[in-house]
Amino acid sequence: MSFSIINCLKNLVDFILPLRCLSCGKIIHEKDSLCSECFDNISFIIKPYCQRCGKPLIGHKDDILGLSCVACLNKKDPYRLCRSAIEYDEYSKRIILDFKFADRVENIPLLVRWLDFAGKDILDAGIDLIIPVPIHFLRLIKRKYNQSALLAMELSKLWSIPVAPNVLKKRKYTKPQSLCDSTKRKTNVKNTFKITNPLKIKGKRIVLIDDVYTTGTTAKECTKILLKAGAKSVDILTVARVCSH
To answer: What domains does the chain contain, in order, with CATH numbers?
Structure first.
């Protein structure tokens, strides 16, 4: 088939099924992307941010010069580094929730590009294994997929780093963290995770993948379990972060 015929067929397909913005549905010219208006509404987390937890420092009374937030100066969380690509707000929420609950798996390439953007520090620090935050099997049946596992598998291809989607499991069915207030989040996930194969993670530098970092309760609980089972270090990487916390 000649190039001209292939090009004509491509133009026909683009005419019948034009590329659309993953957020608003407007016709665009770039695959797996947003229109310029929707893109401009996305708040990317860029420096200055806390060198450890990744919280944006602009507008906060934090140690800007030392690049550390007050929380990280006053306490030591179990993870090594935590990074998120964008702020979780009214503009980014639709893209993430559509992927998570409405089978919009076509959003994956865009979200993985954002993970790659946010994860440079973590990658430079050294990673041996990628692990997604798990969901309970009953929720998996209802949802049909674990959104964090899909992101982790695509990031694994991009970074050429192995992924272990089943080494960390959620053994208890709990209320969604989004339905818990800040005082109940910690008790809601306590002792709900387990390691299925400790040898798989022993001595490994692990990056834990999730879609949204809210208070960090789930990610920190997973981190403690991984470190207790023998992981050398654990970093946290999420697409979005709730920056009001």
So the answer is: 48-77 (no CATH), 81-241 (3.40.50)
